[in-house]
Specification:
The complex is a heterotrimer of chains A (about 425), B (about 290) and C (about 325). Chain B has about 290 residues and is an all-alpha fold. Chain B contains eleven helices and two strands, in the order H-H-H-H-E-E-H-H-H-H-H-H-H. A two-stranded antiparallel ribbon of chain B has the order 1-2. The mean pLDDT of chain B is about 85. Chain C has a two-stranded antiparallel sheet with strand order 1-2. In chain C, helix 2 (about 30-55) runs antiparallel to helix 9 (about 205-235). The chains are: A alpha/beta (about 425), B mainly alpha (about 290), C mainly alpha (about 325).
């Protein structure tokens, strides 16, 4: 007995030593050198949100490399960015501890986390330490409702995006003289899905349309939507709207085809509907699907078209919204640092609050530019509607920014 | 609405057949050698990924790929038994669970490394086809997947009832020592049973890839379904596994029609609890 | 004489280690403290689970349920009624204990054992998760965000050190309870039940009653850990609190370290925590591929340890000794 205890405690003591050693290791690795600006991405590189995190990471790296290759940050005498990514493993508590670590290494700004719970926890760390955290993809309203001064969100809040599909339907009904007003809402039960469902229900009633039903399903365990969609069909739903993850958005469209339910509109809000897997797995079935997002894939502004071509050649996939989010966020930071000529996170945060970025400036491609309010929300952030036509996503609404005419109602499944 | 419910029930039965067959592999191993294989779900998705790979690289239809998948799965089963299973037979269930979970973790990350985290399925020409017969509407690939599943069940039944190995398996399941005394090579029987269980999982994997989206993380989902089916039907019972699977499929499908929010899994597990309380050995357990 | 010093030595080491642990916050920066706090939290949770698994021999796969009840109780009471978590934590523990008692009554009455018990507890946890997700009073899937402010009266601190001492305190409580049980009549009976339940019953040990007691105590302690999680991470949701992730960590730490022992769970859990952090600190840790490969190695290590050291890491010392020329010992 006593020997066992002895061995165990010796081990524990040895581990403490190991721990201490490993940290001095990590600390020295990431510290920015004198002529460097250290920025970090705390993102899910593994785990269920890995596909978002990886593309976001690519985006930030792209701008970082571009800036470094084009003379660095001029106002800091050509200082270069040093970018470090930390994996959250799609776990909120790991997001917290990775942020804690990166913040202790004198980082100037953090990007994160492609997972609302992760961003919620990580932003607590950054707020405590006074380091700006920029999120380019998390729609949860809670993120900016805590009176924090160091949180910045470039994408619109969920309410804005979700209502845009209804605004689109309304406009179409008017211009094409149709009367499709029966709405069926189908969202996953995550934070974002829940807020989307609430916003959709509220707005449907506001514009005088009918809410046939609101269904929130558990994304982790639901694999098939035939039941609920058959019911919607029987109840005469004409406009199907929802926020869903990739597997579900694909399955919803497939199930709709299987039960021969040709609704007037299938309206997807962000999430899986903008993922590359969507088009890849659905092919021609996706024709006519309406998607709301804050990045349009075919915009004609600035360097967008060449960037798109470059991305598609390099990665052999459609340029996804999380990549666009990443480059926009990184470009925003670059402009902010150029303006304030400082690596001090507190000064950068102040600058972020006052700066205004035009849509299309450099690599900023999230609609329609950037200007933060005191809560950290982007007042210029808007949703745009695009539609899948001929297996490509094209912008169709609002008319001023659209490059194509919308097809209304959705063509029947072949 | 009635028709909607009927069609939902049918759809549920189709899915349920698949859950049943996955549960079948799990229950076979448990019944014959008292081994809890938490990695069963992964034995389904590894061949599913392989089938997907064959499809996108050489356009081999998943059903055709069965020709490769069946022997490969069986072989995989033999290997896993020889190096992992056999060492755990005398350990308590908790050891089985932890080791097979470790295996799950390993496979999940291996798949993540090789294939990335994105969802995939084999988008064949018939992936979204529907069979329509009057009011009845069935998904074409799901129908065929179920059909294959039931053929498997039937063949397994014949195997267990009429072949020597099959009968030895049943004997060993009932009484290990007794079987040994009578001259049955228990270890060999176990080996084959395990191989068969992974083989069945492999078949399931190949036939679901035309309509089911999988990623490295889907393995655990299948495990959950298998459990529920096996608990309801009875651990160790083959008809039980299928009935359990069908029940789960139908309950989930009907729940989608009638409930506003998916209590989904909760309903299934609730039924599980009821069964465990009133018929702890499952509806068909011994 | 040598006998006395043999029994005294471990206490000196204990004191030494304890002293080190007490002074760590003075030398560690916030990040290290967070890692230490997280590590200690999981060690504490493993200890709690150990009471049911290692001592009572019941494989509970639904322990996340108790963790979640603890977190949600204190959090909802605070957010909705302003009740300080210092009190809420005990309410949570109490509710959790009741839940454990009810579940045990139901489960043990039917003599559900082994893998059946495991799946049954898992089923209970899943049902609860499903209910929680649809219960608006606790905000459902959206989860609850706790305020970030310095309010010691409500168990909120801006500094990390107070949290460190709190969890250290909980850990000592866990160790104390485990030690107490080990040396008591309860522990003795549980051991008998664990070794051979039928024989124990025949000898007159009311096995059900003691198993239920172990479950209740374990649930209470686990719930305290849940409240701590809420107070430290400031965000809870059904997915986090009732999901299988926490269960995995509790299981693996305990089984690798050595179930049924006093220090096994702590050791196993700390090894995994530290290894994890060490791996994250390596220069190449920022690459997705490397992280995935690390995880694979980790899984293999787990499997190997369970194979070759079924008693857990605590038995490593014995194994090493028995190799060195003591042929008789197993």
């Amino acid at each position: 007995m006593p020997e066992k205890k002895l061995k165990s405690w010796t081990m524990i003591a040895a581990l403490c030593g190991l721990l201490g050693g490993s940290f001095s290791f990590s600390a020295s690795e990431a510290l920015g050198a004198a002529n460097e600006v250290l920025v970090a991405g705390v993102l899910p590189l593994t785990g269920t949100n890995a596909s978002w995190g990886i593309r976001n990471d690519r985006g930030i790296r792209y701008v970082v490399d571009w800036v470094n290759a084009h003379g660095g940050i001029k106002s800091l005498k050509g200082a270069k960015f040093k970018y470090v990514s930390a994996d959250t493993e799609t776990k909120a508590d790991v997001a917290g501890s990775q942020t804690e670590k990166i913040v202790s290494e004198n980082v100037s700004c953090v990007f994160g986390c492609n997972q609302s719970p992760g961003t919620l926890v990580a932003s607590q760390v950054t707020e405590r330490k006074g380091v700006p955290l920029i999120t380019v993809s998390d729609y949860d309203p809670l993120i900016t409702q805590r009176g924090f001064k160091y949180i910045f969100r470039t994408v619109p809040v969920m309410d804005k995006i979700s209502t845009s599909v209804l605004v689109f339907a309304q406009a179409m009904n008017k211009s094409q003289n149709t009367k499709f007003t029966k709405v069926g809402i189908l969202c996953e039960d995550s934070i974002v899905g829940d807020s989307a469902a609430k916003a959709l229900e509220k707005h449907t009633k506001e514009i005088g349309y009918t809410v046939v039903d609101v269904v929130k399903y558990n994304a982790a365990t639901t694999r098939d939507f035939t039941g609920v969609l058959s019911r919607y069909k029987a109840q005469g739903v004409e406009l199907i709207v929802g926020h869903n993850r990739p597997a579900d958005s694909i399955q919803i469209v497939r199930n709709l085809k299987e039960i021969v339910f040709n609704s007037a509109m299938i309206g997807g809000i962000g999430g899986g509907w903008v993922a590359p897997e969507f088009l890849r797995n659905l092919g021609p079935l996706s024709e006519g699907v309406i998607i709301a997002s804050s990045e349009t894939p075919d915009v004609k502004v600035g360097k967008f078209a060449e960037l798109k071509k470059e991305y598609e050649e390099k990665y052999k996939e459609e340029m996804p919204s999380t990549f666009i989010g990443g480059i926009s966020g990184a470009w925003l930071l670059y402009r902010a640092i150029e303006q304030c000529a400082s690596t001090d996170p507190k000064v950068i945060a102040k600058t972020l609050h006052s700066i205004e970025i035009k849509y299309g400036d450099g690599f900023y491609f999230q609609q329609f530019g950037c200007k933060f309010d005191e809560k950290g929300d982007n007042t210029l952030a808007s949703a745009v509607i695009f539609q899948v036509q001929n297996n490509l996503r094209v912008s169709v609404f609002p008319a001023e920014f659209a490059n194509h005419k919308p097809i209304w109602p959705k063509p029947v499944f072949k | 609405m009635f028709i909607v419910t009927l069609n939902a029930t049918i759809n549920g039965l189709l899915y349920g057949s698949i859950w049943g067959i996955i549960a079948l592999g799990f229950t076979l191993v448990f019944g014959v050698m008292d081994f809890v294989n938490f990695a069963q779900g992964f034995f389904v998705i590894i061949p599913a990924f392989f089938s997907y790979f064959l499809f996108v690289s050489w356009e081999i239809d998943p059903y055709l790929s069965l020709l490769f998948i069946m022997p490969l799965s069986f072989g995989l089963g033999l290997l896993v038994y020889k190096y992992v299973g056999v060492r755990l037979l005398d350990e308590p269930h908790s050891a089985h669970i932890v080791v097979t979970l470790g295996l799950c973790f390993f496979i999940e990350n291996l798949l993540l490394l090789l294939a990335g985290g994105d969802l995939r399925n084999a988008v064949t020409s018939y992936t979204s086809d529907t069979i329509q017969w009057g009011w009845m509407m069935m998904s074409y690939p799901r129908f065929w997947a179920s059909a294959v599943a039931w053929i498997c069940v039937f063949l397994l039944f014949l195997f267990l009832k009429y072949t020597d190995t099959g009968r030895s398996m049943r004997a060993a399941a009932d009484n290990r020592e007794g079987a040994r005394i009578v001259g049955i090579h228990v270890d060999r029987v176990y080996l084959i049973a395990f191989g068969v269980s992974v083989l069945i999982a492999g078949i399931a994997g190949a036939v679901i890839i035309p309509f089911y989206l999988i990623s490295p993380f889907t393995g655990m989902d299948f495990l959950g379904k298998a459990f529920a089916a096996v608990i309801i039907g009875g651990l160790g019972s083959i008809p039980g596994a299928m009935i359990g699977g069908l029940m789960i499929g139908v309950v989930e499908s009907i729940a989608g029609v009638f409930f506003k929010a998916s209590l989904g899994n909760a309903v299934t597990f609730f039924i599980m609890i009821l069964v465990l309380l009133f018929k702890p050995n499952g509806l068909f357990g011994e | 004489m040598s006998n006395v010093s043999r029994t005294r030595k471990p206490y000196y080491y204990l004191g030494g280690a304890g002293g080190i642990l007490l002074f760590l916050p003075l030398v560690m920066n916030d990040h290290l403290l967070t890692v230490a706090i997280t590590g200690l939290m999981w060690a504490y949770l493993c200890l709690s689970w150990n009471l049911v698994f290692g001592f009572a021999g019941q494989f509970s796969l639904g322990h996340a349920l108790f963790w979640g009840i603890g977190a949600y109780t204190s959090t909802v009471l605070f957010v909705n009624y302003g009740l300080t978590p210092w009190v809420g934590i005990f309410v949570g523990g109490f509710l959790s204990a009741i839940a454990a008692w009810l579940i045990s009554l139901v489960v043990l009455r039917y003599r559900v054992k082994g893998v059946y018990f495991a799946l049954m507890t898992l089923a209970f946890a899943e049902v609860f998760t499903g209910l929680a997700l649809n219960w608006d009073y606790i905000r459902g899937p959206v989860g609850i965000l706790l305020p970030m402010k310095n309010s010691p009266g409500n168990l909120f601190f801006i500094a990390r050190a107070p949290y460190y001492y709190f969890i250290l305190g909980l850990l000592c409580l866990g160790l104390g309870v485990t030690y107490g049980i080990q040396k008591s009549k309860l522990g003795y009976y549980l051991k008998a039940v664990r070794e051979d339940e039928e024989a124990a019953e025949v000898s007159g040990v009311p096995s059900s009653r003691y198993k239920i007691l172990a479950m209740i105590i374990s649930a209470f302690l686990t719930a305290l850990g849940g409240t701590f999680y809420a107070q430290f991470f400031l965000y809870i949701s059904p997915e986090i609190m009732f999901g299988f992730g926490s269960q995995m960590t509790m299981m693996i730490g305990t089984m690798v370290g050595g179930a049924g022992t006093l220090l096994g769970p702590v050791l196993g859990s700390l090894v995994f925590s530290f290894l994890g952090e060490l791996l994250r600190s390596l220069p190449l840790a920022h690459s997705r591929e490397i992280v995935t490969v690390e995880r694979m190695i980790w899984a293999l290590v787990l499997v190997v340890v369970i194979f070759y050291l079924p008693g857990g890491l605590v038995t490593l010392g014995d194994r090493v000794k028995s190799r060195k020329g003591r042929p008789g010992t197993s």
